[in-house]
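Database export, one record per block. Field names are fixed; values are copied verbatim from the stored entry.
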Amino acid sequence: MSQHDAAAVEKMAKDYYDSGDADNFYYNVWGGEDIHIGLYKDDVEPIRDASRRTVERMAEKIAHRFPDARILDIGAGYGGSARYLAKKWGVHVVCLNLSTVQNERNRQMNKEQGLDHLIEVVDGTFEDLPFKEDTFDVVWSQDAILHSGARRKVFEEVERVLRQDGEFIFTDPMQKVDADPEVLKPVLARIHLASMGSFDVYEQFAKDLGWKTVEIERLSEYLPKHYSRVRSELESRDAELAEFCSKDYRERMKNGLSHWINAGKQGVLDWGILHFSKA
């Protein structure tokens, strides 16, 4: 993908997440903290609880770094993960995110919860991180890299800002290497890209950079479960959501979620926690 195309994808993502419809939907349906796939105990568990369980699972894998680690969360959304890490472990976190609207909510919640002295919110993109080399002990990301039109560049930027022996831990919705293109097509249309990442692609990026694979935890069964849970919430709360999300947005969201669920159940999508260390 050319630099121009990647910039266009970035603009579409920013415009989408800055829109009133998207902001109100994600903030209200997900519970105002996290915007990522959850680890569910059952099919009716609140999205907020399952999403927080993902954060807890990831934090356990890097807990040996706390509380002294300096952490960068790329694609931080509303900053729920940063608040969890700061509140529970007392670590310093920098949230990097392209959505101005989400960043303002993030800053406000940090202040309200008395965590703004531990969390810094920075407007920016993960293809061009506005930080010096060797700045962070951990780079963290949840379900954000799929929106990049230059994913290898994201890895290169993480390499640049990570200190020696630093760790990169993230989740991302991904495609199977041999995914049926017809099943995948409506999912890709939703994110305006020709492909998604994959376990193989991301492991190869890490290998090319000389990183060590710490752990790959494959949790793909949670992807269709999560999007099914979101669709159910959207349908059951449609009248309530109509007050702050347009009908057109709600219908497009239902349709888009159905494509994600279908692709997940047909086994063309992956999801999990990827954990690498800078050698």
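Remark 1: The chain has one domain: 3-277.
Remark 2: The chain has a mean pLDDT of 94.
End of record.
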